[in-house]
Amino acid sequence: GHTEGVVCLNFDSNVLASGSVDVTVKVWDIDTAKATQTLFGHIEGVWAVASDKLWLISGSHGHTIKVWNCKEGQCTATLVGHCGAVTCLGLGEDKMISG
Questions:
Q1: What is d(CA 63, CA 79) in angstroms, rounded to the nearest whole number?
Q2: Predicted TM-score (pTM) of this structure
């Protein structure tokens, strides 16, 4: 699992994702309770996660949002613009909201 505290969870489309102070996002198989992916890229703790069938987004204390391809576990974009920690995220059909 994570090496430091878990601060956010998201469950959608049979994907459980967790974000941690250890700066990673983990994607979990809910049947085996084992991590199937560990997503690296944030430089400060991950405070928010949201997902759908194609995308997972994560927000960090480092003021950034990362967009991940769920299937490949690759970061496809890093979004900047927040002046503080990103602590909440929402993902819709064609929009993302953050705060």
A1: 9
A2: 0.94
